[in-house]
Design brief:
The complex is a heterotrimer of chains A (270), B (541) and C (217). Chain A has 270 residues and is mainly alpha-helical. Chain A has helices spanning 22-43, 50-70, 78-102, 131-144, 146-149, 182-191, 204-217, 226-231, 254-261, 264-269. In chain A, 48% of the residues lie in helices and 0% in strands. Chain C has one domain (44-214): Up-down Bundle (Four Helix Bundle (Hemerythrin (Met), subunit A)). Helices cover 74% and strands 3% of the residues of chain C. Chain C is elongated, with a radius of gyration of 21 Å.
Amino acid sequence: MSDHNEKHQHEGQEHHHFILPERTAVAVGLALLVLTGVTVWVAGIDFGRLNFTIALLIAVVKASLVGLVFMGLKYDRKENGLIFVTSFLFLAIFIALTATDLLFRGDVYVKGPLVAASGKSQFKKPWISTTELVAKGKTLYEQQCVACHGAQGRGDGPAGAGLNPKPRNLTAAEGWKNGHKATGIFKTLTQGLNQMPVFSSLSTDDRWSLTQYVLSMGPAAEKDTAADFAALKIDPTKDDGGAGAGEESKSIPVEVAIDLLAVPEQKAQR
Amino acid sequence: MAHTAVAHGDNYLNHSHGMMSWLKTLDHKRIGLMYLFTVLGYFLIGGLFALLIRLELMFPGQTLIDPNTYNKVFTYHGAIMVFMVIIPAIPAALGNFVLPMMLGAKDVAFPRLNLASYYIYVFGALFATSALFFGGADTGWTFYTPYSIRTSGAVISVIFGAFIMGFSSILTGLNFIVTIHKLRAPGLSWARLPLFIWASYATSIIQILATPVLAITLLLLIFERVFQVGIFDPKIGGDPVLFQHFFWFYSHPAVYIMILPPMGVISEVIPVFSRKPIFGYKAIAYSSFGIALIAFVVWGHHLFVSGQGELANFVFSLLTMLVAVPTGVKVFSWVGTMYKGSIRLNAPMLYALGFLQLFTIGGLTGVFLATLAIDVHLTDTYFVIAHFHYVMVGGALMGLLAGMHYWFPKMTGKMYLEKGARISFWWILAGFNITFFPQFIVGAQGMPRRYHDYLPEFSTLNLLSTVGSWFLAIGFFWAAINLWRSLKLGEKAGDNPWNALTLEWQSPSPPPHENFLVEPVVTTWPYEYKAEAGLTPVRPW
Amino acid sequence: MSSTHITTGGYQHAHHYKSAGDEFEASKQGMWLFMVTEVLMFGGLFVAYTMFRAMYPEMFHEASKHLAVNLGLTNTIILITSSLTMVLAVIASQKGQKGRILLHLGLTFLLSCGFLVVKYFEYSGKIHHGILPGGLFTNTEITHPKAPLFFSLYYVMTGIHAFHVIVGMGLMVWLAVRTMRNEFSPAFYTPVELVGFYWHFVDMVWIFLFPLMYLVG
């Protein structure tokens, strides 16, 4: 029996078909088994994110062996191999362009509870009061909170008139369910509390600013304990509370929104 | 190789007799005809649903049917027209008949697979149609999740029918690619391939690459409904937008499956009826592949307002603009072909010109829709409906009619009745424009699509559109009846009534069973038309 | 339908081809085009896999640990070996060795049975623990809220793969029957070669499925 490697390109003639030697077949089969072993062994070693790539690469090598030798692409006309490989190109396009959507939506997929300070805060350790935070918080308070809590924070705002219980008197010392402390107020703003709505749509910065302003309206704040920070998944040793501790939802900073909405004359007055 | 002597008058139609000889045929010409009749039958059904839609929308408020029924009606209209009519139409009906002959071959590469493709198509179509009797589907032909997971009705029947029909499309494409690669006549080099072949080649590649993704999408949807796999179901943690990615990865290239073959027909018809070589042969050939390639990277423009991320929106908008380039190359080349040509306005040419008008409008409005900022307002309005009807009906269907008339003599041995063909063309052209142009306007004014009702301010144009649909319907019926009458009353056609240069015209009309009496040998490019000085025109116009 | 056939080496090829060699080449190319469709079909599932894995990497790590790596590894070994026996069957058909064809087809078939048996144990073990796709998931040990998605992908991907294995087994039986009827010879063994391609592709899919499903942890 003869093995012919040549292919006659002329039409109408008998083609000599390449017959793979059995030894080659068995050798490749063994190689595939060995590579399988390698795959399992490597998977047991922690290369971090590289593990996926390595596993995929070994799989590609194995698949190539199957394609080139078992399926005869190595000994066949280039046309067929080209046809087969092209399919993977289009699969890659499918994956890549779908990924531009699914993996790059940014804010939509919340990776953690929306309670901690995120890496995007412009303030360092915003659970500690600064004049800047308080000033910013004052502006926000006048837009977001005055309606219910009143201009002086006594819980006497017109929108709160019909609520039972009435909105909290922020100047009082007692009865703070989450504690009269930075983490407590931040938590209340983020998660809501009874009839107090959730204000998680405000950015993290905004909520910390409001927290500091609200604290400044009342008596001295209590200290935040380690447990308090842990409950919010904040690492108080880090300026930003720990990266990836939570993502804020994307929102237009209030100043920008006001600016966009204000008519020119009103702008001139301010 | 032995040649069977062909008795005088022996052709593929009388080669064998009886219903079974047709149902078990392996002759690509007969298979093509069977496809043609089935496709036209479904076109009638899908068209009736369209007329029903227009009747409902004739006046604001409920005219004939309630909203839930309306939802089912537009679902059937879409599903039938897409899966049972336009996708198979030119490739399987005209392509099956013409492609092997244009290549000088005796048949397609896999004749039995070809017959199987036909039966798979019929089976799938019947399966999907059966849904009508089991509660139907009201999801729209796009089956978006999570509604398609939750809604009751025979959604699975429609989906599974489409799944089955997909295999027919795949196998036809597979068959054509191998035929083009392996069965070309001696002398038929790549540089001499007719443009219809180039178009069919590009189409077949799309069919092979895209349709399997439809298969897995529909399968996953069935698993969603039956096994609650949840990949597309937000309640279980999946992503409904992912379904849309999956669906449109097929369905966008699908629209190029629908338009490339008609473009191929136009590329054949225009040189013949301008008596001039095609302008930009290489450009048109390459542009077919350009379109096929770009087809695969633009699907996200169907997801602009579905919650797709900003980055993806930007990328897809940009890429979608690109497809206008190879498309424009074709349109300009066709116009360039006609320039200083000796134009004969027989029916195929009329339909080709109608294609140019309608497809250009449709294509340009596609660019509006590709523009992200504009699409945000126009999407899900009647503007989109007008756009895709201009390209699909104005493009694909005009191309089908052009091809049917052009190759009618070859298929039947008779000339079609020219006068009736012309009249029906004008009815179709006028009716089409009256039906769909107003839809651009109401769409831009905000009328949403897939709604069973609309605001009173849109009444006049909707009424006009409905009246237009009657003209359009009359035109289609007239064209069909005219072709039917031509079978009996048409004069006998010679081998080559158009004096065309592609190989199929070197054979008798109708062709013998094995396509050619003598195996053709190609020595020239198929577009060496010269304005023949002193020769009488082929047919007086 | 019968048409003019040319007889070469005892095999008659179809009339519209110039030679048996041309017909064989055409059939092979047709099979490769079919492989393309299978790549895109399974590929779609890999797209879903990639997206969800990229979005929920920790969930994939946790969930994957609940897959039986040993069984997956066993199946990988079985399938690779069956690919080898399939190749040997094709080689035997190229040489006209009827007995060896049947032997290797039989081995491939048996190995496939083994694959399905292992699969049966895998699936039943999971179902027993309430590990079911998506909305049917009832297991309480695995806590990540998105974990049912991983198992949906697992069931769908390995399930469709197993379906292809079953189809392959049917094809092997068909080939065996035709071999026993002496329909194959060195002049004509196309069906064996094409089924071989199909089987190797099924193996290829598993080569990717195994690490991506079982070895994520």
